[in-house]
């Protein structure tokens, strides 16, 4: 059976970019005419080589067609991925590489291992380097601290979230356990000076004052532990994590010496690809936006969430670096200026929910810029 061409006339009833009225077009239909045998289509299958060659000769083709072999065992063909298979493969962290700022033993590394116990951690000198490592495919994900229950927000990392194109895919709430470390065999009464990150020192003021220990700043807690281990001095200690003590061979002289027992640091796990939002568990969505000028515009922006019973768990404002000031009054008496801000918001809803989609659509009415930083499962309080 072959195909032959019959002319038909087409007259569309609706306007078209390329009108067909008065144009002659062709439509293919089936025919069993022997004269059209040279136009028949031949499908290449395994063991059909001679017939394919003959058909090619009849059609006047110069090149010789080669037979194409197909799989006979359909079970060997790759199966299409489903949403469930994507989530199950995400749980296999044996080959996940995660970048973090600091050296081995840092709290950021502990947070990465909390999220992916079997991952390979990659230390980076700076936070920005950790971002770049993920963007350049040197690692799969990056981890960074974003806020502490005592010290507050880490503003530098909020700026980096906007500067880079990574997506938040997970959060980790890590309870802080500041330990007083010393070289093997030393007692805590022998410690006269202690090294650590300035924030860690501030969080242990009362304990250090009770011991009469002088405080010295270090780049980070893990570096302080490494420095004490390298020096071998018995009168110098460090404030760092249990993991840092194990890595650098130091004794733990005291645990949980932080002044606030409920000291928690929130970390974010970042990836090149966003997470597929779902509704099977509590989700959180992080966004950043700037507002148009007008009275009560911030109230209107926040009201879009309240109207839909969406809880806001975090609000952070940062001045816009490229346009920090906005002119308010250009009169002859001078111009008053106000700061122009970016607003970072975390709200407790999944982007898979209609109410969240409607809230963001409503929010766009008041914003000059908006970006979703990530939608990810909430890390519930342990």
What does the model show?
By secondary structure, the protein is α+β, with helices and mostly antiparallel strands. The chain has three domains: about 75-175 and about 260-275, D-Maltodextrin-Binding Protein, domain 2 (3-Layer(aba) Sandwich); about 180-255, Periplasmic binding protein-like II (D-Maltodextrin-Binding Protein, domain 2, 3-Layer(aba) Sandwich), CATH 3.40.190; about 275-380, 2-Layer Sandwich (Alpha-Beta Plaits), CATH 3.30.70. About 25% of the residues lie in helices and about 30% in strands. The chain has helices spanning about 50-60, 85-90, 105-115, 125-135, 155-165, 200, 205-210, 220-230, 240-250, 295-305, 355-365; strands spanning about 1-10, 25-30, 95-100, 120-125, 140-150, 150-155, 165-175, 180, 195, 215, 235-240, 250-255, 265-270, 285-290, 310-320, 325-330, 335-340, 340-345, 365-375. The strands form five sheets. Strands 3, 4, 5, 6, 7 and 13 form a six-stranded mixed beta sheet that branches. A five-stranded mixed beta sheet has the order 10-9-11-8-12. Strands 15-18-14-19 form a four-stranded antiparallel beta sheet, with helices on both faces. Strand 3, helix 3 and strand 4 (about 120-125) form a beta-alpha-beta unit. The radius of gyration is 32 Å and the shape is elongated. About 30% of the residues are buried. It catalyses: L-arogenate + H(+) = L-phenylalanine + CO2 + H2O; prephenate + H(+) = 3-phenylpyruvate + CO2 + H2O. InterPro entries: ACT-like_dom_sf, ACT_dom, Preph_deHydtase, Preph_deHydtase_CS. It comes from Brassica napus. This is Arogenate dehydratase.
């Amino acid at each position: 059976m072959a195909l032959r061409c019959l002319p038909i006339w087409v007259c569309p009833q609706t306007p078209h970019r390329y009108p067909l009225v008065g144009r002659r077009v062709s439509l293919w239909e089936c025919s069993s005419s022997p004269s059209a045998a040279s136009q028949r289509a031949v499908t290449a299958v395994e063991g059909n080589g001679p017939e394919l060659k003959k058909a090619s000769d009849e059609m006047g083709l110069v090149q010789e067609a080669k037979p194409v072999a197909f799989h006979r065992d359909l079970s060997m063909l790759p199966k299409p991925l489903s949403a469930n298979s994507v989530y199950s493969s995400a749980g296999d962290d044996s080959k996940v590489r995660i970048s973090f700022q600091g050296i081995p033993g840092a709290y950021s590394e502990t947070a990465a291992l909390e999220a992916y116990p079997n991952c390979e951690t990659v230390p980076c000198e700076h936070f920005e380097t950790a971002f770049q490592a993920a963007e350049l495919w040197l690692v799969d994900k990056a981890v960074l601290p974003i806020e502490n229950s005592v010290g507050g927000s880490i503003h530098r990392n909020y700026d980096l979230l906007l500067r880079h194109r990574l997506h938040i895919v997970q959060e980790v709430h890590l309870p802080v356990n500041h330990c007083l470390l010393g070289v093997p065999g030393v007692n805590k009464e022998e410690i006269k000076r202690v090294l650590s990150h300035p924030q860690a020192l501030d969080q242990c003021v009362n304990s250090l004052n009770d011991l009469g220990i002088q405080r010295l700043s270090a780049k980070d807690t893990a570096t302080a532990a490494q420095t004490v281990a390298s020096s071998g001095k018995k009168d110098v200690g460090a404030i760092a994590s249990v993991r840092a003590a194990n890595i650098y061979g130091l004794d733990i002289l005291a645990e949980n010496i932080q002044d606030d027992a409920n000291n928690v640091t929130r970390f974010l796990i970042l990836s090149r690809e966003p997470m597929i939002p779902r509704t099977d568990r509590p989700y959180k969505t992080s966004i950043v936006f700037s507002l148009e000028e007008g009275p009560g515009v911030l109230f209107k922006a926040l009201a879009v969430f309240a109207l839909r019973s969406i809880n806001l768990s975090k609000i952070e404002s940062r001045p816009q670096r490229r346009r920090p000031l906005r002119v308010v009054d250009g009169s002859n008496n001078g111009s008053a200026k106000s700061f122009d801000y970016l607003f970072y918001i975390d709200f407790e809803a999944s982007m898979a929910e209609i109410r969240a989609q409607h809230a963001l659509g409503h929010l766009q009415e008041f914003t000059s810029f908006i970006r979703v930083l990530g939608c990810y499962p909430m890390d519930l309080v342990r």
